[in-house]
């Protein structure tokens, strides 16, 4: 079993070590550490957490162990709470809003940056900064931009006469939710742009020529050539951003802590709060278990779209 | 004006507006405390001062320790990720082994899992084995995200190594490991760089694991330290922006140096199986 770890020798490999159809068994050792690592640090905690949802787990049980099985009592408890449904609803609004804004922004950027002009690559790279910047940085900068009294946004809005006095964007439920969506989409849109630029370059130029010959306007070309041509990549982009957004914790936590009054308390923040503030590890596990279902369903779609892309 | 000119002008304007948040961070970080509260705010810090950097970044032991912790965690994560993910990616790309498809699906699927879903049970399980509030625990937690991503980034690079080259190495007497180290790895260095940088940057900005697993002050990464100090910094925006800028700088430097690799890596990891 350790043969694979021996330093390479210049002697010819004996015939029995040459790979057959199945390959040498010790080759499996290349993959084994990664599989074991993921099994222990991802799969096991996930299973453990799902099991916790069916137990009575408070701080005492976490420290001493010995949690009792309670069946579906935790689920019944959570499903009877308006706060839980509120968190799930907010998660969906936040996620769908982020997907829509990121995709629209990314597509607009892609339509501009697919063309050739001086400095295009440099500017594309600069835009990617928004995506690559740590969320902790982006979230704090957005909080500062949106500050009611001294923030840049209000200064600009006051300057052009749109508002009068201070608007506390993060202090009111609706605007706070819109703000975290904008801040998230700001960082996701350049990611969408990069994938969509590549896809735009793949739309055959002959299709546009044909459309022009048929007298199609720019809008008709966009509607009937560009968008259908982008479809597979668009689906991938939207699915990926949906998954990214649905699991977002840091941006929201750093900008609003889930507030004001729970107006941005999406499911990940709700679960975190249940566990680390209220020490209700069991109901937190219910929330995270529900959170697993969405990416699970979506990943099925994602794999299917990947397969279609490969087949195409 | 030609069409190209118009596009150039629009693109410059769009890029400039898009990067206003980044500019505003730098602008504020070079302002005096009093200047931060000017209405309307000054678009350029006059005169620019590094006072905020001096007090917040170099004068505050919590911040300095947070930066050091983040560096240790990100470096450890990168090394462990390289050691575990590179051979796995090679095996999935070029070795005839069992379970290739299930393993690929596993590594792709776990990337969809929210970090919160892992942080909560990890807090309990790591507590049992003494990993809460240790560098090792934070590194392992970060690797649970970075290793699957690194494998998906790395695999296409190994796939592009021609099988005949590896076969030739084998005929010349290389073991599987020899062919991997001497033939496949050297031509896949861009992939290794990409995944190392992506792993490092991921851990550098990581927040959820730090918040859940670094319960004491001593080992908290900078992301958590900033979040904790946010209230204390409530009115000291210039200092908060200075710290944010310092956190952003390594990211920007790595990005500028390795832009080609990173963009390719991020998009590859996202689209290719």
UniProtKB/TrEMBL annotation, chain A:
Kindly indicate whether the keyword ATP-binding belongs to this entry: no
Keywords assigned by UniProt, alphabetized: Cell membrane, Membrane, Transmembrane, Transmembrane helix, Transport
Chain ranges passing through the membrane: 29-51, 87-114, 126-145, 176-200, 229-246, 284-303
InterPro entries, alphabetically?
MetI-like, MetI-like_sf
Domain (ABC transmembrane type-1) ranges: 88-302
State its location(s): Cell membrane
Keyword flag Aminoacyl-tRNA synthetase: no
Question: What domain of life does the native source organism fall in?
Answer: Bacteria
- SUPFAM superfamilies recorded: MetI-like
Bilayer topology annotation: Multi-pass membrane protein
Stretches for region Disordered: 1-21
The family annotation for this protein states: Belongs to the binding-protein-dependent transport system permease family.
Please report the name of this protein according to its UniProt entry.
Answer: Sugar ABC transporter permease
Q: Which organism is it from?
A: Pseudonocardia zijingensis
UniProtKB/TrEMBL annotation, chain B:
Transmembrane spans = 7-26, 71-92, 104-129, 135-158, 179-204, 240-258
CDD domains membership: TM_PBP2 (cd06261)
Q: What is its main location?
A: membrane
Annotated ABC transmembrane type-1 domain residues: 67-258
Subcellular location(s) per record: Cell membrane
- Output the InterPro entries linked to this UniProt entry: BP-dep_ABC_trans_perm, MetI-like, MetI-like_sf
Name the membrane topology term: Multi-pass membrane protein
Keyword annotations from UniProtKB, A to Z: Cell membrane, Membrane, Transmembrane, Transmembrane helix, Transport
Question: According to its UniProt record, which protein family does this protein belong to?
Answer: Belongs to the binding-protein-dependent transport system permease family.
The protein's matches in PANTHER family, at most eight in alphabetical order, are given as: INNER MEMBRANE ABC TRANSPORTER PERMEASE PROTEIN YCJP, MALTOSE TRANSPORT SYSTEM PERMEASE-RELATED
- The protein depicted here goes by the name Carbohydrate ABC transporter permease
Species of the source: Pseudonocardia zijingensis
């Amino acid at each position: 079993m350790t043969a694979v770890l021996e330093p390479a020798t210049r002697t010819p490999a004996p015939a029995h070590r040459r790979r057959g159809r199945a390959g040498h068994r010790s080759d499996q050792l290349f993959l084994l550490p990664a599989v074991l690592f993921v099994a222990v640090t991802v799969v096991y905690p996930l299973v453990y957490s799902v099991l916790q949802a069916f137990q009575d787990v408070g701080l005492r049980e976490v420290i001493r162990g010995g949690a009792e099985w309670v069946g579906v009592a935790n689920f019944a408890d959570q499903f009877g709470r308006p706060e839980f449904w509120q968190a799930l609803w907010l998660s969906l609004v936040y996620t769908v809003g982020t997907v829509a804004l990121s995709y629209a922004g990314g597509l607009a950027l892609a339509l501009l940056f697919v063309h050739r002009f001086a400095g295009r690559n440099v500017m594309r790279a600069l835009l990617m900064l928004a995506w690559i910047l740590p969320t902790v940085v982006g979230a704090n900068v957005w909080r500062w931009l949106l500050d009611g009294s001294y923030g840049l946004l209000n200064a600009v809005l006051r300057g052009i006469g749109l508002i009068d006095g201070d608007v506390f964007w993060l202090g009111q439920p609706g605007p706070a939710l819109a703000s975290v969506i904008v801040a998230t989409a700001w960082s996701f849109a350049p990611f969408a742009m990069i994938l969509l630029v590549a896809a735009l370059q793949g739309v055959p130029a002959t299709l546009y020529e044909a459309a022009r010959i048929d007298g199609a306007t720019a809008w008709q070309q966009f509607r009937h050539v560009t968008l259908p041509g982008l479809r597979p990549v668009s689906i991938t982009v939207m699915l990926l951003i949906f998954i990214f957004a649905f699991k977002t914790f840091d941006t929201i936590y750093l900008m609003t802590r889930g507030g004001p009054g729970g107006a941005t308390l999406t499911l990940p923040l709700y679960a975190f709060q249940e566990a680390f503030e209220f020490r209700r590890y069991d109901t937190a596990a219910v929330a995270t278990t529900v959170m697993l279902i969405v990416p699970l369903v979506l990943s099925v779609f994602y794999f299917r779209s990947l397969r279609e892309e490969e087949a195409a | 004006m030609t069409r190209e000119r118009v596009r150039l002008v629009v693109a410059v304007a769009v890029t400039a507006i898009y990067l206003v948040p980044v500019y505003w961070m730098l602008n504020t970080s070079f302002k005096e405390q009093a200047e931060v509260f000017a209405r309307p705010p000054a678009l350029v810090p006059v005169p620019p001062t590094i006072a905020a950097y001096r007090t917040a970044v170099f004068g505050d032991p919590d911040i300095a320790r947070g930066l050091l912790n983040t560096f240790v965690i990100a470096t450890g994560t990168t090394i462990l990720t390289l050691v575990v993910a590179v051979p796995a990616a090679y095996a999935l790309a070029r070795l005839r082994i069992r379970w290739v498809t299930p393993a690929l699906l596993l590594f792709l699927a776990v990337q969809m899992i929210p970090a919160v879903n892992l942080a909560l049970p990890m807090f309990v399980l790591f507590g049992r084995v003494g990993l809460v509030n240790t560098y090792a625990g934070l590194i392992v937690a970060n690797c649970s995200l970075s290793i699957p991503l690194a494998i998906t980034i790395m695999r296409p690079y190994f796939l592009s190594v021609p099988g005949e080259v590896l076969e030739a190495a084998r005929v010349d007497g290389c073991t599987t490991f020899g062919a991997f180290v001497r033939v496949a790895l050297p031509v896949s260095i861009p992939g290794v760089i990409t995944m190392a940088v992506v792993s490092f940057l991921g851990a550098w900005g990581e927040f959820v694991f730090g918040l859940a697993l670094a319960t004491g002050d001593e080992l908290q990464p900078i992301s958590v330290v900033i979040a904790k100090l946010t209230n204390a910094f409530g009115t000291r925006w210039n200092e908060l922006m200075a710290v944010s800028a310092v956190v952003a700088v390594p990211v920007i430097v790595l990005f500028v140096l390795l832009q080609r690799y990173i963009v390719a890596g991020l998009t590859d990891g996202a689209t290719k199986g």
